[in-house]
Amino acid sequence: MTRGGLPKRQRLIGLWLLLSGVSLLGGAVFAAWLDTQLTPTGATRIALWIGSFSGGATIFLVGLLLERMLFTPLRHLQVQLARLVANPDARDEHPPEGWLKVWDPTYVECVKAGARIAAA
In 51-72, which positions are buried (b, 16+ CB within 10 angstroms) versus exposed (e)? Predict the structure, then answer.
């Protein structure tokens, strides 16, 4: 923990999980209320409950997708670039991953350019 509270990344994840939980809880309450008002049966009841939970589940899955495919690779890329600046001859152990894989050729060019500048 930092002096001002949690780090920004943990606050963002906490907010995302809180929003997902509130949405799921709201969906459950709404589905229970609608179920008592309409008294659906069979497939209609299943569709009602699935539809009520879909909003919270979507928020959770989008957040999970962003965390795994964008935020984590960006943190790794930030560390790699900091290592490159500190030591241009350092070995690159982890290529970009997630949605940043398409930037791999650009990253390799940056590493080569940094090595040329350090050699000069």
Answer: ebbeebeebbeebeeeeeeeee
Residue 1 tokens read as 């923990």
Output the average pLDDT for the chain.
Answer: 87
What is the DSSP secondary structure assignment for residue 1, as one 8-state letter?
-
Q: 2 forms bridges with which residues in the sheet?
A: 5
Q: What is the pTM of this model?
A: 0.76
Upper half-sphere CA count for residue 41 (Cβ side, 13 Å): 0
Taking a C-beta distance cutoff of 8 angstroms, is the pair 73, 98 a contact? yes
Torsions phi, psi for 39 (to 5 deg): 45, 60
Cα distances (Å, whole numbers) of residue 68 to 41, 55, 60, 84, 103: 39, 20, 12, 24, 17
pLDDT (mean) for 15-43: 95
| N- to C-terminal Cα separation, the chain | 42
Handedness of CA 64, 68, 74, 80 (dihedral sign): positive
For residue 96, count CB atoms less than 10 angstroms from its CB and return exposed for 0-12, middle for 13-18, buried for 19 or more: buried
